[in-house]
Design goal:
Layout lengths: L2 E3 L17 H12 L7 E4 L5 E3 L1 H11 L4 E7 L4 H12 L8 H14 L3 H8 L3 H9 L2 E3 L5 E3 L14 H9 L5 H13 L7 H20 L8
Parallel strand pairs: 2-4
Antiparallel strand pairs: 1-4, 2-3, 5-6
Helix pairs in contact: 1-2, 3-4
Length: about 230
């Protein structure tokens, strides 16, 4: 079995179907390595060294042994990024931690970017095309320059309205919780005297107070509105 130095491998997130590295998964693999377990070889593109399957294994080995350590790899020649993405998706369905709903949405975006036909994507994900299309239509938004983006639940009322650049940034960093939940959290902290009194917190609450006043005025609400 050939080996490659970890530092020479490329973790290209644009062909990886998961939306983030799972630290608990990496931690579990680290424990397995310490216990003497032999992990499956990592699959890479022969020409570029791009990791197609095994992101968590690479991170675990790097955490234990450092970037100069050599790990076992399987190599395969890929025609293009579309072929790499197709394999990456197929190898992450039904194995280990299955793809969650956020990962599925990410796969839809990535497939669109590389030109992977939608029906092919549905087959790789083991979804009926009609069901996947219905799912896509409740999760995908667009930007002003007509790019597809994954909408977190906080912003899903914008499904049929292009996001501005500022709104796109908010979507990237939003927790995914519904706006009412976030408002209720702030109210609960204030009502129960749990809100910190640190200077930066107080300043942000003042900023919030001013923004709420402007928002109420601009949207035609009055103090008596329910």
């Amino acid at each position: 079995m050939p080996t490659k130095q970890i530092a020479s491998l490329v973790l290209d997130e644009t062909i990886w179907p998961r939306h983030s590295i799972s630290d608990p998964n990496v931690g579990a693999l680290v424990e397995a390595i310490h216990a003497g377990a032999k992990l499956p070889p990592v699959l890479i593109d022969r020409a570029s060294g791009v990791v197609v399957d095994g992101f968590h294994r690479v991170r675990a080995y790097e955490r234990v042994f450092g970037p100069d350590y050599e790990i076992e790899v399987r190599t395969k020649s890929y025609k293009d990024r579309r072929a790499m993405l197709a394999d990456a998706i197929a190898l992450n369905v039904g194995r280990g931690a299955d793809l969650n709903r956020w990962d599925l949405t990410r796969c839809i975006v990535l497939a669109d970017e590389v030109g992977l036909p939608f029906n092919n994507l549905a087959a790789l994900l083991q979804w009926q095309p009609e069901r996947l299309a219905a799912y896509r239509d409740t999760r995908m938004g667009t930007t002003l320059d007509d790019r597809k983006v994954m909408l977190k639940r906080s912003l899903r009322r914008h499904l049929n309205k292009p996001l501005t650049k500022a709104q796109e940034e908010v979507n990237k960093h939003a927790s995914g919780m519904a706006p009412l939940f976030l408002v209720n959290q702030i109210i609960s902290f204030l009502e129960t005297d749990l809100m910190p009194r640190d200077d930066h917190v107080v300043q942000r609450l003042k900023d919030l107070y001013q923004l709420i006043e402007v928002w109420i005025a601009e949207n035609g609400f009055s103090e008596g509105d329910k």
